Prior knowledge:
Helix content is about 50%, strand content about 0%. By secondary structure, it is mainly α. A two-stranded antiparallel sheet has the order 1-4. It has a two-stranded parallel ribbon with strand order 2-3. Helix 6 crosses helix 13 and helix 10 (about 180-195) packs antiparallel against helix 11 (about 205-220). The longest helix is centred in the last third of the chain and has 28 residues, at about 340-365.
Amino acid sequence: MTKSLLMTEFSDTNSVTTTPSAHAAPSSVNTGRRSSIPTFPSLVPQRTDRDYATYKTWEFDVFKHTEAELLPMIVDMFNTFQLLELFRIDIKKLHKFILKVLALYHKENRYHNFVHAFDVTHASFSFLTIMNAQEYLTHLDILALLTASLCHDLDHPGFNNAYQVNAQTDLAILYNDTSVLESHHSSMAFSLLKKQDCNIFENLNEDQYKEIRRSIVSLILAKDMANHFEYISKFTHHLQSHKFDRNKKEDRQMILNTLLKCADLSNAAKPWNLNYEWSVRVADEFFNQSAYEKEHHLPVAPFMDKSKTSKPRIASDFINFVASPIFRALEDFLPAASRLNEYLAINQQNWAKRLEDIQNAAAAATPQPDSDHTDTHNNNHTNSTNTSTTSSSISITPPVAPSSVSTPPSTPPPIPSSLNSITTRTTEPRPPASKSSIHTPPSEIRTIPEEPEETTPNDSCDPSEDQTNQRQEPVKPTYASVVAGFTTSSPSPSSSSIPPAK
């Protein structure tokens, strides 16, 4: 089978331009935001910045950038594959679509927020470019993957499917207890895409629209962890039985679904400092849900119960039982993904060491029997002296990392100094969560509000106000967050295109 190549490098820096706009609309959602609109950051000034330039690498640190800085990178991802040109996507509508997506992610979620959505989109983009998955796909497939990645957790409430079903929420009732959140994310995405000012698919023909809708729905529904291991089994069987055929729609869809599933779990295969931060965040969200479930007498999953597990245990088990199997399959398909499994091994070794430290500390804190009582007991039971001596000499050995984990190529790195504050925060005991400190789930199904007519803002503010490198959730720009400042990259004329699948 002949593979057709896509452009693997970014558009030339000189082709990046900033398009001014005469109008900007005030936001109709999240009314607590600033009344003035900052200029949207351009890609041009940051192209010389070392941290910013690393966005085309797997090791890109999303936490070093504000949400406002991440938005133009999404546009650049679309332009890398000439998607705006090929599908006649209106740049202003792409800008508004991305801003609406930003507004629909819940800022209060520790894990399932816009930063996670960007991180997953970036991972999908990396699979396409760095690991050459693009060779098996069409341009329409790539448009579907990037759009689905951006919307894959749209309007996530911070409470998982099990909670939705157990609490019989409106979403569970609506979707009949089946792939509840995944169905909601997909529905919200297409509800947004139907808005006239966000319809980036408006120039697709009927067959293209039907195909991309089918593909995006399949992509998002494939994320349901209830079917995770069954899906890995099917993908592995396909790899072993016959090669993927780019001309078969079903084969390409299986590839797309695998890429998004891996992207959704990709924090486990990132450098240690990034894996650590994401692991802390997801554990915080789990503990918040379990505290709420206990308070409302709902079933609590043991792996989310703070009294029965720990953050290192959650992270270690996630790598061992959830992430490692699918990333091994990904490496079989894309050999360039081998280094991701090296990161998995390093991270697993680090979490195993922390688990060992916890278990050793627990063993050391266990009260020892009184020595006088032990002597009296031994004198009264001389016949069992040998047995008692033998038993008391056995030391408590904490579990070690599973033998299936491969040895990393180098010594696992220590927690970087930039994470010292996080380490302190996560190791110190916390008081029990009070009712007021527990983030509660939404009480009703969220809808996409209608947009007011555009008006010209009375003032503006310096965009540098939002530029911060602190590891915290940055302030979202307002809805009209300067569509004017969105950066567009003109596609390189030297890039080749993939013909439609036959």
